[in-house]
Design goal:
Layout lengths: L9 H22 L3 H26 L6 H17 L5
Length: 88
């Protein structure tokens, strides 16, 4: 999984950090029996998701693989199997 760098982007990190802060806020206010603060934390969680999505759409997420990249990977896999090696 580390070879794909899944989630190692500014968009992913920012969205997760903001959502984590919202989770912590909601947890604290839930224990404190404060419904308004709890729902404020829930809103922060959704804001984190929206910020991450917005950053991804702005180009700060993982780039999508082009058709040429996918085709080249498939050719490499077929060639490796023909040689008797492990898949790429």
């Amino acid at each position: 999984m580390s070879a794909s760098a899944h989630g190692h982007t500014p968009a992913a990190w920012t969205g997760v950090v903001i959502s984590f802060i919202g989770f912590c806020v909601a947890g604290v206010f839930m224990v404190a029996a404060n419904p308004l603060g709890f729902w404020g934390g829930i809103v922060i969680i959704f804001v984190g998701g929206a910020v991450g999505l917005g950053m991804m759409m702005a180009g700060l997420g993982m780039p999508k693989k082009s058709a040429e990249q996918l085709e080249a990977r498939e050719r490499a896999t077929v060639a490796a199997r023909a040689r008797g090696g492990a898949s790429v």
